[in-house]
Each structure stands twice: as C-alpha cells, then as structure tokens.
Amino acid sequence: MADRSSAPSHRFCALIPAYNLSHSISEVVRQTREHLSEILVVDDGSHDDTARVARESGAKVLRIAKNQGKGWALRSGFKHLLQNPWEGIITLDGDLQHDPVEIPNLIEEHDKSESQIVIGSRMGETEKMPWIRYWTNRIGVSCISWAVGQPLTDTQSGFRLYAREVLETIPLWTTRYDTETEILLKAGLLGMQITCIPIKTIYHEDEEISSSFRPFPDTFLICMVFLKSLFWRRGWYLRDFEI
Questions:
Q1: Which domain range does residue 104 map to?
Q2: What CATH number is given to the structural domain containing 163?
Q3: What pLDDT, in 10s, does the model give residues 164-182?
Q4: Is residue 241 a part of any domain in this protein?
Q5: Residue 7, in any domain of the structure
Q6: Residues near 115 by Cβ (< 8 Å), separated by ≥ 6?
C-alpha cells in the first residue's frame, strides 16, 4: 500500500465530473486535495451550487452551460488538463462513491506495473452493489475483457488513472457513460496495458447521493460501443476510430 503521509502528488491531477452534487462535492474535493495538488471539477450543467461549492473548496472549475453527459464532461476536462505537463489524470466521481484515500494506490500500481490505465475495481465486495449494477457490470466485464484481450474485473468503475499517452493517443466520440468503455476498448486495440486493483465498494441508499447512471439507456449505449468495436477488431475504422 502507498504511503499516505507523503505530500500531495504533483505528477498527477484529479478530474471530477459533477452534476447537481453541491451536497457532496466539497467533501470529495477536500479529501482529494490531501493526495493531489490540482483538482478540476467539470460542472456538467448543474442547476444547483455545485460550481460555487467546488471552487470554494479549493478546486478549479470548468462549467458546461447545459448538461451533456458524463463522457462529455470527461472529454472537456481531459482537453483542459492536457494543456499542462501532467504525467496523467486520475478520475473519480463527486458523489462520495469513491474514497480519495485510495488515490495513492492507483499511482503505486501505475509505477509498479507501468500500466497505462489503472482501474479501481469494486468487484471484491459485490454484495454491496445494487443488483442491476452488479449484473450489467458482470456482463460488461466478460465482453470487454474479451475485446481488449486482457482480464479485467471492473469495466464500469469511474475511479481510474489514465497515463497521459492514453488521452493524447485515443480520439473519443461518445458523450455519456459509454465514454469510459470506449477508452478501454480503444486502449486494448492499441495494446495498452490495463490493470485493475481492489477498492472499497461504496453505495448510498439516500436518493440524494445516488448515482446518475441510468441502468437501461446507459447500458444500451455501452453495448453499442462494444458492438462497434467488433468492426474495429476486423480492421474497419482502425485508422481514426470513427464510430
């Protein structure tokens, strides 16, 4: 396990997509600042005080006027952060479902394995997951592991470390929860190494701090990206990954 007593890392920065999370974003930013020197919150068209609260908590804020989806928020954040010479970007959710104390473990795994993507896997505590999230994740894990040619344990976790080369090499076209799957599929096709490490599974029963993941429409979008990747595997669109 990484030494949590060290100063915040200046090698990596944090990217937190947020939509109507004024109730939780302050705590997420506060805890993340203990491990990373810079945090960017992308406010994806929130109707509450998410942007103000995040800024007052010490994060930089990029505001999108109208809600466009998690993938669009991630893509906007990647573009903004890559203007600076970070080694990579660590993404986590702003709804307290990821524990920032585990950020050093992602960095430690990246340094040890030289993986271009490190995923915080929740599958060690599956009994805590809502059943619909568990089954959609299990199906996705099997299909995406096969597509990328590497054994993965959690393909939907948004708690990830991306090495800079991943985000500079892979063009992205999706805009919602399918974007994180698109990254994995394209990274696998390029032979990039992807590693999963266990993290705590945190789910909240309170509706106010529940995920904005929509099980059926978002799962459909993820399935469509996977099906399109079958054509990429056969050589179609491989040059520019058009989807």
A1: 12-233
A2: 3.90.550.10
A3: 999 999 999 999 989 999 9
A4: no
A5: no
A6: 109, 163, 193, 194, 195
CA-to-CA dists, residue 92 to 18, 32, 120, 232, angstroms: 10, 9, 10, 28
Cβ neighbours of residue 189 closer than 8 Å, sequence gap 6 or more: 148, 229, 232, 233, 238
How far, CA to CA in Å, does 102 sit from each of 14, 83, 116, 130, 187? 13, 26, 18, 22, 24
Mean pLDDT of all residues in 85-110: 97
Which pLDDT tens digit goes with each residue over 134-159?
A: 656 677 788 899 999 999 999 989 99
CA distances from 172 to 9, 57, 148 (A): 27, 30, 17
Could you give the dihedral angle defined by the CA atoms of residues 102, 205, 54 and 218, in that order, rounded to the nearest 10 degrees?
Answer: 90
pLDDT-derived band at 123, boundaries 50, 70, 90 = confident
Encoded amino acid at 96, one letter: L
d(CA 158, CA 117): 12
* Count of domains observed in the chain: 1
Given strand 12-18, what is the order of strands in its sheet?
A: 60-64, 39-44, 12-18, 88-91, 160-163, 117-121, 194-198
* Average pLDDT, rounded, for the chain: 86
In this structure, is residue 1 part of a structural domain?
Answer: no
pTM recorded for the entire structure? 0.85
80 in a structural domain: yes
Owner of token pair 């930089």: 60
